[in-house]
## 1
Amino acid sequence: MSTDNWPGLTRDLSAMLRDLRTGSPEVMKAFSSMAQSALAPKALDTKTKELIALAIGVATRCDDCIAFHAKAAVDQGATDDEVLETLGMAVYMGAGPSVMYASYAYQAYRQFAGLKTPKV
C-alpha cells in the first residue's frame, strides 16, 4: 500500500475501531488491556516496544499497524536513525523467516514426492 496521508489513515481507522468497540465491547476491552500491559515500561521502555511493533507491522505487511505504530513511535520520541535501524531489522526478519520456511516447504515437497533429500 502506498499512501500520502498516513495521519488521515489513522483517523479513518480510529473511527472504524470505535464502531468495532461498540459492536464487540468485551473483546475490544480485552484487546485494549492486553495492549496496555504489553506496552507498559518494564525491562524495555515504551519507545523500544513501539519500534518493535513497527518492525512487526512491516514484517507482517500490516499497513494499519504501520500507521498506528509509526505515530506511536513519534509520540514516544523515536529518532530518524532509530526508525531506520528498526526498519532494517524488519526487512531482514521479514525475509529471513520466509527463507527458513521455504526450506521446510521444499523438504516437505520432496518427502511427499518420494524424492531423496539432498545431502548438505
## 2
Amino acid sequence: MKNKDILIIGCGAIAHEINEIIKLNNWNNVSLQCLNADLHNTPKRLPTKIKETIESNLKEYSKIFLAYADCGTGGLIDSMLKNYDIERLEGAHCYEFYAGSRLFKDLSDREIGTFYLTDFLVKNFKRLIIDGLGISKHPSLKDEYFKNYKNIVYLAQKHDNDLELKAKDCANYLNLEYSVHYTGLGNFEDQLNKAMK
C-alpha cells in the first residue's frame, strides 16, 4: 500500500541543491533518491536506470517526481515516462532549469559555441571532464572535444569566490573566454514547488 510521501528521483549533480530546497520549504514528507551524476557521460543509459529506480519505488510513494531534464537523451526519458504518471523538470538540461528558459535562450543565441558550468561541474571538473572524457590519458582529445566552443558560461547557484576562481581555471584550461551568471535556485525551486502541489 502506498503512503502519502513524495519521492524525488534526481541526478546526483543536483542533489545538494534539491536537499537545500527541501529543507527551505520544510517538505518533511519528501524523500530524495539520486542516481550517479557520471551517467551524464553516457546519456543513453539514463532512461533504463531511471526506470529501474521508478519501478523499485512505485508501490511505496503516492507521488514520484523526476528531477531530470532531457539530459541529452534525445527524448528517451520522455518516451519512458509515458508509461507512468510522473512529471520531470522542464527543459533540455540543468543549465536551462537553473538559468530559466529565457536567459538560457539569450545566452545560446549570443554564442551557440558555449560550454556551461554549474557549481557541481566546477567542483568535479577534473573527475567528470578531464578524467571522465579521457583527456588525462589522451591530452589531444581536449582540442578535439572543444574545438567548436568559443566560451564558458558559469551558471553559479551561489556567490562563492573560490568556485568562481576554479571556474576561471576551467576556462583557462580549455582556452575559452569566461563569463559568470548568478542564477540562484529560484527557477529550480519554482519548478519543484509546482511539482509538490
